[in-house]
Description:
By secondary structure, the protein is an alpha/beta fold. The protein contains 17 helices and eleven strands.
Amino acid sequence: MNTRTKHRSVPLSSVEIDTSKSYPRRISILGATGSIGESTLDLIGRDPSSYRVVSLTGGHNVTRLAELAVRHHAECAVIADAARYQGLRDALAGTGIEAGAGDEALLDAASRPADWVMAAIVGAAGLKPTLQAVRQGTATALANKECLVSAGAIFMAEVARANTTLLPVDSEHSAALQIMTAVPKERIERLCLTASGGPFRGWSREQMAVAAPEQALNHPNWSMGPKVTIDSATLMNKGLELLEAHHLFSLGPSELDVLTHPQSIVHCLLYLSDGSVLAQMSCPDMRTPIAYSLAWPDRMYAPTERLDLAALGALTFEAPDMERFPALRLAKEVLSAGGSAGTVLNAANEIAVEAFLARRIGFLAIAGLVEATLDGSPDLAMLKPQKVDEVLAIDADARSRARSLLGRFAD
Ligand SMILES: NC(=O)c1ccc[n+]([C@@H]2O[C@H](COP(=O)([O-])OP(=O)(O)OC[C@H]3O[C@@H](n4cnc5c(N)ncnc54)[C@H](OP(=O)(O)O)[C@@H]3O)[C@@H](O)[C@H]2O)c1
């Protein structure tokens, strides 16, 4: 008999959104101009009387941010790139929508009273604004995976301190949450995340060595922003998701697993102590997990394709190949190491993906650069920062080391 009594925190939790009293719900979207942001606004735009848009933020795309802010009657629009402030002001002139720019304005956008915030800024740049929303006690739909990978312990401590509802948006973690809420946590033996395998699933290392960014960006199942699409091609994305799952669900390395599932229909499998395996399925469209987080604890309509298993015919599964895809191995090693290894992995990966997209390094050099940066960072397991600024200092240091190593991997 399994007698484990280990406490597992399924995050969602603590604060129920009282849907009877809070319509229209006040919504903010950090990263509104990106793939997740646009999908969220697509859902909101189909039922505008149920939502009031408070803040929308973008990184650089002023034109799109202004269009979205006007269309969704936002209270304020903030662009992270301070140099684009005048452009945003001009685009919003006469609309009554407040314009802001730069880091402080981003934090202000995240601080404005709202019932729900979508955290969909890409990269470690999302950490501070997302934490700001969490600290306000705003129910937070978390798409940004880098903040858990880079600062998971601090992030989850802030969620607990603020008694905030945290709703993971990654399809795999959304699936896990949907299943986990139906079972006693101490009966969970293993959580298995599925991976599509990306565009290079059947490719040899020789073929991958000369893969161009356009080929890596051509994901077979999912339509996503460029960073996460490249992460999917290297399988680093699945590694980042293992680290996320570790923090979200308090599961250790031996309780987390990955299975390649090219159809992207089953998003996660939960193995239980009685031999049962529970799965969540849907067609690959991020509007399904976004809708789950948006309607939680209720359910809502999402205009996504309905799953037709008879038409699909077969769902297949295979073990991931960690020799051809070393990024997944690196992430597993980082998961076991703990400490600040996740911060360094994430920082080096952001630099490597950027360099690959800029054609400065080849596809295989992405994992190579990450491994070299990790190898050059001793004692990461012992490094346990207590503050966000300490994490950001480790992140900055890792970025600068990764940049200094780029020459070694340059094409
Ligand atoms: N897309 C998916 O299906 C998916 C699935 C699961 C998880 N995620 C995660 O969700 C996050 C967003 O992914 P995405 O695919 O939506 O990315 P994306 O399409 O590249 O969008 C990223 C958003 O972040 C903004 N941004 C970029 N740099 C910024 C900075 N320095 N400061 C503030 N904002 C900045 C971008 O603004 P501009 O475009 O205006 O520059 C855009 O609004 C990522 O962490 C990703 O791993 C995505």
